[in-house]
Write a structure and sequence with these properties.
196 residues; alpha+beta; seven-stranded mixed beta sheet
Amino acid sequence: YDMTMFLDYYLRIKIKRSHMDILEITQKQDPLYPTFEQIYTASFPLFEQRTEEQQEQAFQSPNYHLVAYLKDNLFIGFISYWDFSTYVYIEHFAIHENFRGQGYGGLLLEDFNKRLNKIILLEIDPITDEISSKRLKFYKKCGFFENRYNHFHPPYRNNYRGHALIILTTERQITEDEYIQFGFDLRNIVMANFKE
């Protein structure tokens, strides 16, 4: 009997029992926004971050949502996503550094998946080192499939180029038509105000 499996299971049950609150942040004036911003800037390189103005523009879109997960009033992590008719695109997802490695990432994605009940699409960095390799394993363990499209994310900021990313999806790999639709939504809705 594998003790680590038992401990992993016990930890997941324990976390599930301790209720997590899910709150939507809809504007920069929200009291949770500064903590979100702190986790966001610490978790992503500058070229993958929205500027303050671009974040304001995202809040104006009916497709955009930013949800914070709290436990005992502690900010555990967040998911920012775009809700489209046939799928959901997670733009950014991060756990506060104090709570990493404790099973929260998997639990947040599991909860998110159950609540939305659509194909979830997200992007990760190409596999170049142990960290990126662990990240891919984590998402595969959470039920994501790797897609083989030659995908480039448009730049968030001037003076930066688009960057190559791997597309992961829940349920199954997406078809070419679905990938083309995502590319259209990414350029024309998610990145609508990023024209140089």
